[in-house]
Fold this protein.
Amino acid sequence: MKRLLYFALMIVMVITLCNCATATPTAEPTEKPPPTNTPVPAATDTPVPPPPTDTPIPEPTDFDDGTYVVAMYSDFADWDPATAYSLEIWFLYNVYEPLLWYNPPGSEELFTPALATSWETSDDGLTWTFHLREGVTFHDGTPFNAEAVKYSIERTIEIGGGAAWIWGAVDEIEAQDEHTVVFHLSYAAPLDLIASSQYQAYIFSPTSAEKGTDWFMEGHDAGTGPYMVESWAPDQQTVLVKYDDYWGGWEGHHFSKVILKTVLEQSTQVQMLESGEADRATLVPIDSLDGLMANTDISVNIVPSWMNSQFLINVQKPPTDDPLVRQALCYAWDYETVVNDIYNGMATVAEGIIPKTMWGHNDDLELYEFDLDKAKELLAQAGYEPGDLKLDIAYIGTSAEYENAALLLQQNLAEIGVELELKPGPWTTIWEEAKSLDTAPNLQSMTWWPTYPTPNDWIYGLFRTEDPTLFNLSHYSNLEMDALFDEAMVLEATDRDEAIKKYDEIQQILLDDAAAIFYADINSRITRRADVAGAVTNPAYGAEYFYNLARKQ
């Protein structure tokens, strides 16, 4: 479902890639469906006027900083903003705009107005009114207005692709006047967060969209953003050029052209970055990091993301249907060694299912720690002697991180008399097998990141009762937790503090039930030329916002 290719490539180098969030949602390819003014979470480059940086931006004059080149690890597969749900975030984020942008951590406000300048909601969270920016045009010259918002979201919902499920609460969209749009919901939902999603929240020109998906798939765009698509050469490069009539203007220093060049080889990306042929590399191997950090022409930034990894434990397949066995597995996992040695410090030990940098994370969880004696004790309580148990674990075979973590667990379990069979394979194969109890393993690798900024994404996608199974590969079903989750999701729109309390409870339930080994909150590695200024990291968007960037003078 959500960005399978993106994930597969990403997890191969799990932490080598560009930056994330984050992105979708997911899983390995993640996931999910439906469903927050809450504390700003942790940290790609957000579309707000360039914030203060350590590099001063030149005086406001219309200045062309030339071309910015990004070495991408894959080409784009979907050009329709109503359905694009993966690596496409790199052009979506710069060519299109949503109603709101979600701000990076440390910001005074949770949102920055994009195509909406203000908004309000009814006390019951069922009616949301957005007041729209005036004087905006789409790249095809069509004026932006309330009818365009209504058309875009309704077309996205009707097609039902990508993350269209985020609009599941919408009952009706009313274009009240030229610059006012009202969303009437069938149940309370945090439409401000939803409207800032990195997928399926973009507004596009009805004039161009009427040409259909086939027209988009030729590499055309219909956005309002600062850049427009000039050309697309499949599997080679995409060229974006500045939209002269962008409502934000072009005062100050900006790149007038951006080239997203498909470069599959990691070593080639590094060479391009070192030589200056590329300004940004998105797939840098770990063993190149020290050399790049020593190069004064290169900037390497390690930042938190909203991506995390876990091994889901099958709660219905013997012997992991026994909670004591599952808890023993959680104690047999060497958390510190995995993040420090296997992930080379490019991750931190997870504390439950919600990343520590996401709002709603419970800081007071009772956690597992590496303790083989405790694991052995729990297995004895479950009635197992050394040599009795045989388990299996499935993971993406091209990921060195998954492979080495599984090998370490195998070694640890062997010390307490448990045999662990390793089952590496391609994601598409192991995913299909994991969905069926007849072929599912006892443990299944999973990496997840959200579609929009909400903790419910992980819970809904991975652990809410699911039939048929999609990403709940633990085959976990807890009706009490489901009810708690449903309450929390609605409260996100009306009382987020109360919603957080319920999410806190859910996070501890999942740990107590040992539905997974939660082990790594992933950091993103961002490598670019040191003469580029203006970048701001934001885990809500898994790409760079080119409009903020400038060449140091």
